[in-house]
């Protein structure tokens, strides 16, 4: 595991604004029965870790003034206007420290799943599941095999195999993680044949009425403007 060197903050390290302008993000490391430690992490490295995936479930090895610490990212704070990262919280952990993490669920064999091949849709109720486990036993992801799943099936947490010592934080019910639902088909509304026939007849009658009106107008014009007899 790569070790990341951080700076321990003090009065001499300057203000929060000063640190941010130098490319350092201020933060704090805390833990049970330990004193909080103010530190600063290089922004470029922190951003890289944040976008590498599974940031909140990855134990980081940091070096604080020559002292090695294991920490778990817990919270990030952003500027309300610029959206730039301005603070972070790390939890100090030991191998046996109980932690709560959100772990993504991966669904295997989607291309051969019977329900999906019939046009079904995989509806993800939970993309991640919150788990409780020891810091040295955090799984990268949970997996469920769709090889025999059919339309109408519900995938519950009890259907997903969890590593030993790993438990969901929701323990009062067997909650649903995903469902395999039928395809949604939009049915185009069609007019009954009788309505179409009536519309056609009305259109014809309307045309006849318009023709009669035109004939009447022409007759009126001829009567009001008789041709002059040639002298």
Q: CATH-wise, what's the superfamily of the largest domain?
A: Ribosomal Protein L25, Chain P
Briefly note the CATH topology name of the largest domain.
Ribosomal Protein L25, Chain P
Distance between the termini: 119 Å
CATH class of the largest domain: Mainly Beta
Question: If you compute it from the alpha carbons, what radius of gyration comes out, rounded to the nearest whole angstrom?
Answer: 36 Å
Helix share bin: 10-25%
Order of strands in the sheet with the most strands? 1-3-2-6-5-4
CATH architecture of the largest domain: Beta Barrel
Question: Which of globular, elongated, flat, extended, rod-shaped describes the shape?
Answer: elongated
Tell me the β content: 35-45%
Structural class: alpha+beta
Q: Please provide the ordered H/E string of secondary-structure elements.
A: EHEEHEEEEHEEEEEEH
- How many distinct domains? 2
The average pLDDT score comes to 85
* Spans of at least 5 consecutive residues with low confidence: 220-224, 226-231
Number of helices: 4
Number of strands: 13
Largest sheet: 6 strands, mixed, barrel
């Amino acid at each position: 595991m790569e070790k990341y060197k951080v700076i321990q903050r003090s009065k001499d390290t300057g203000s929060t604004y000063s640190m941010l302008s130098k490319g350092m993000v201020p933060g704090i490391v805390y833990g049970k029965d330990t004193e909080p430690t103010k530190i600063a992490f290089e922004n470029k490295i922190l951003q890289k870790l944040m976008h590498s995936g599974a940031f909140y479930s990855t134990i980081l090895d940091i070096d604080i003034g020559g002292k090695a610490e294991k920490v778990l990212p817990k919270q990030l704070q952003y500027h309300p206007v610029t959206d730039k990262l301005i603070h972070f919280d790390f939890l100090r952990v030991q191998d046996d420290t109980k932690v709560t993490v959100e772990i993504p669920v991966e669904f295997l064999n989607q291309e051969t799943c019977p329900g999906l091949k019939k046009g079904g849709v995989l509806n993800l109720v939970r993309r991640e599941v919150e788990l409780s486990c020891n810091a040295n036993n955090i799984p990268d992801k949970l997996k469920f095999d769709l090889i025999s799943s059919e339309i109408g099936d519900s995938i519950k947490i009890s259907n997903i195999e969890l590593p030993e010592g790993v438990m969901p934080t929701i323990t009062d019910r067997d909650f649903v993680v995903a469902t395999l639902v039928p395809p949604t088909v939009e049915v185009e509304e069609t007019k009954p044949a009788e309505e179409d026939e009536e519309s056609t007849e009305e259109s014809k009658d309307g045309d006849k009425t318009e023709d009669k009106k035109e004939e009447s107008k022409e007759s009126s014009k001829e009567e009001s403007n008789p041709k002059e007899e040639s002298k």
